[in-house]
Amino acid sequence: LFMPFTPTIGTGVFSKQPYLAFQSGEFLNIPIIIGTNRNESDIVYVSTPIDCNVEYLPFLEVTYGDTNAHKIAQFYQVPQTIGFFDCRNISVHVSKDSIFLCLSRNLTRNAVAYGIFVVVVFHFYCWSALNFVLF
């Protein structure tokens, strides 16, 4: 659980990194609403193709270590074929889950472990809900 854009520490508002405080149970006992959107990580989608074997699998190994990289590649069905295969869509899905979905899941587990039982988890998956023509 690492969020590089957390608030500045030592300003009198935050005494420690929020994720460290949350992991040790130092938070208010109030209801929590947390979740993710289907297209949350589209911002990391690149315009040029990403070769699975040459670029993406080595990236997973450097980022997550060899053992975890192979588990991730298997779970997300990253093709290990000879020749070029574009991994952009797979990389967006892995990024969304690792950055947003796993964060929501871990924070929810911590909240319940420390006694917050009003936790609402959402996964906004339908863009048609924003289509006001349908209403």
Automatic annotation (TrEMBL):
Tagged with keyword Thylakoid: no
Keywords: Membrane, Transmembrane, Transmembrane helix
Origin superkingdom: Eukaryota
UniProt KW Transmembrane keyword: yes
Residues spanning the membrane: 111-134
PANTHER family from the UniProt entry: ACETYLCHOLINESTERASE 1-LIKE, CARBOXYLIC ESTER HYDROLASE
Name the record gives this protein: Carboxylesterase type B domain-containing protein
Native species: Reticulomyxa filosa
